[in-house]
Amino acid sequence: MCSLCGRVAFLHTCRLCGALVCSDCYVPELGVCRICAGKLRRRKSKGAF
């Protein structure tokens, strides 16, 4: 069961937090869940200036 949305599906493991998440909640380009992806993107945008 997905840690974020509760869907029963094939699960991926987030490389940052270790959460088991479904394909809808996983960002394959980054190898992380959507929560960690948002954190990474915010860090990247803050560091861009």
Can you describe this structure?
The protein has 49 residues and is of the alpha+beta class. It has one domain (12-47). 29% of the residues lie in helices and 16% in strands. It has one helix and four strands; from the N terminus they run E-E-E-E-H. It has one helix spanning 34-47; strands at 12-13, 20-21, 26-27, 32-33. The strands form two sheets. Strands 1-2 form a two-stranded antiparallel ribbon. Strands 3-4 form a two-stranded antiparallel sheet. The protein is elongated, with a radius of gyration of 12 Å. The mean pLDDT is 93.
Q: Radius of gyration, Cα only, in angstroms?
A: 12 Å
Outline the low-pLDDT stretches.
none
Element pattern in H and E:
EEEEH
Query: How many structural units, i.e. domains?
Result: 1
- Number of DSSP strand runs: 4
Helix count equals 1
Give the oligomeric state.
single chain
Instruction: Look at the structure and give the mean pLDDT.
Output: 93
> What distance lies between the first and last C-alpha atoms, to the nearest angstrom?
39 Å
Q: Which overall shape is indicated by the principal axes computed on the Cα atoms?
A: elongated
Q: Structural class, judged by helices and strands?
A: alpha+beta
Sheet having the most strands: 2 strands, antiparallel
Strand content: 15-25%
Question: Helix share of residues?
Answer: 25-40%
